Amino acid sequence: MDRAEATGVSVMLEPFAASKSRPEDWLAVLCRDPRRAVEEEQIVCLVCGARFRQLTNTHLRGHGVSAGEYKQRFGYNRGRPLMCHALSRLYAERAVQSGLASRIRSRPIVADPELRRRGGMRPVTLEELLTRRDARRAAGRGGP
């Protein structure tokens, strides 16, 4: 039994085997809208096209990037977890069950005077721009 089986994490290393065209074409499409790379049961690495439940620092280190650099390069929000939706929900449920929120002692907007001075302003990422655009379009049509 390998490590992935022992931890219950399924890892598929074949890059976009299910796609009908070349993997480079699909990666280009996903790079234009990186939100599409995060699916219910898997996330696609936008560097190599491999599919995982979670993009780990170990995998990203193989490409010579950190998680922060990866998010910045492809336009993800800084707080975006690099994991599939199902795993993200599982972790959120566990955090609620264990009372994690009650143990958080610091709020950055309160602790950092620079953030207060800027009024919470931050760079807007590609992911956020695309989400805002989609919300405006949905509101214009009267619904999703």
Describe the structure.
- By secondary structure, the chain is mainly α.
- The protein is built from 8 helices and 2 strands.
- The protein has one domain.
- The protein has helices at 3-7, 23-32, 57-62, 67-74, 85-98, 108-111, 113-118, 126-141; strands at residues 43-44, 51-52.
- The chain has a two-stranded antiparallel ribbon with strand order 1-2.
- A hairpin with a 6-residue loop joins β1 and β2.
- It is globular and about 50 Å long.
- The model is unreliable at 1-20 (pLDDT under 50).
Query: Could you give the distance between the termini?
Result: 45 Å
Shape: globular
Order of adjacent strands in the largest pleated sheet: 1-2
Number of strands: 2
Residues in helix, %: 40-55%
What does the average pLDDT come to?
A: 79
> What is the SS-derived class?
mainly alpha
- Residue stretches low in confidence (pLDDT < 50, at least 5 long) are 1-20
Taken together, the total number of domains comes to: 1
Order of helices and strands: HHEEHHHHHH
Q: Number of helix segments?
A: 8
Q: What is Rg?
A: 18 Å
- Main pleated sheet: 2 strands, antiparallel
Fraction in beta strands: under 5%
What is shown here, in short?
With 144 residues, this protein is mainly alpha-helical.
List the helices and strands and how they pair.
Elements: H1 3-7, H2 23-32, E1 43-44, E2 51-52, H3 57-62, H4 67-74, H5 85-98, H6 108-111, H7 113-118, H8 126-141
Antiparallel strand pairs: 1-2
